[in-house]
Design a protein that fits this description.
Shape: flat
Structural class: mainly alpha
Strand content: under 5%
Mean pLDDT: 87
Largest sheet: none
Number of strands: 0
Helix content: 55-70%
Radius of gyration: 17 Å
Length: about 110
């Protein structure tokens, strides 16, 4: 693969389609899980650089104080759907989503 010229944008990842009840929970688990990581980054940027939501960390704060409650709600939905749909399609969708995101910078 030829190097991308400086300033060229990386194309968006080809994320798996999450249009079915069996695929949506796994993909959402990956995408929404990133909000938990964002809170860790937000906290560290504040600790190390003194920045807050008003001065540069709002992207990492996503849902503000609602990150954990929303995450718990999603996990409850995933557990309920896993009892109905089985774990395999949910796990496969999560793996496919992780794979797409991991390959994104290599495009």
């Amino acid at each position: 693969m030829a190097p991308r010229p400086p300033g060229a944008q990386t194309p968006a990842p080809d994320l798996p389609r999450l249009r079915t009840p069996a695929r949506a929970p796994g993909g959402l688990h990956v995408l929404e899980g990133a909000t938990l990581g964002g809170k860790v980054i937000e906290r560290e940027v504040h600790r190390r650089l003194g920045l807050d939501r008003a001065s540069g960390t709002s992207f990492f704060g996503a849902y503000g104080s609602q990150v954990l409650p929303r995450w718990r709600e999603l996990c409850a939905v995933i557990e309920r759907e896993a009892r109905t749909l089985g774990v395999d399609p949910i796990a496969e969708s999560a793996r496919a989503t992780f794979d797409a995101i991991e390959e994104w910078p290599l495009r």
